[in-house]
Amino acid sequence: MLHRGSNTEWLRSASLDFNSYVEKRVGVRERWGVPFELFWFTSHEYYIGSLVIRHSLTDDEGGGHIGYHVVYPWQRQGHASQMLRSELVKCRALAIDRALLSVAPDNLASLSVVRRHGVVPDGTNHEGDIRFWIDTSAAD
Ligand SMILES: CC(C)(COP(=O)(O)OP(=O)(O)OC[C@H]1O[C@@H](n2cnc3c(N)ncnc32)[C@H](O)[C@@H]1OP(=O)(O)O)[C@@H](O)C(=O)NCCC(=O)NCCS
Q: Are the CB atoms for 62 and 127 separated by under 8 Å?
């Protein structure tokens, strides 16, 4: 049977043993050939969204340093803007002086989010996403 939306199989392992599910995801891990960290944003018992910081860029710089999403019921309430603001401080602490973000040209929501941060556009990546640099020294 076909289901719309994302594969939710991961929820099964999370619900069977949530503590070890979290344990495996905390801290610096390696993916895409680079070290990265995953952050979950919550409000009380509710999951709002996630943000990933790659500590270094992949060879093709494709995904940039930062990626994020906010789940549907929590969108358009300023959460992504707040998440990005707080994570730019972490980037600065990691000595990422300029953070690279890549955004699809038709992703109006994400374009609004990144443009709040005095971004410097820098062409497009191999997928046609617009590359933006954000100076993290101003993050607070
Ligand atoms: C992009 C995304 C993270 C934005 O999250 P959010 O919490 O809704 O963002 P904010 O509430 O901080 O909104 C930021 C701005 O985008 C605008 N916006 C939000 N959704 C929008 C939409 N569907 N169309 C147009 N503008 C939109 C908001 O109005 C706001 O702008 P404003 O304050 O100038 O009005 C969310 O839509 C999402 O998870 N999308 C799918 C994953 C994704 O695209 N991730 C980013 C990849 S680069």
A: yes
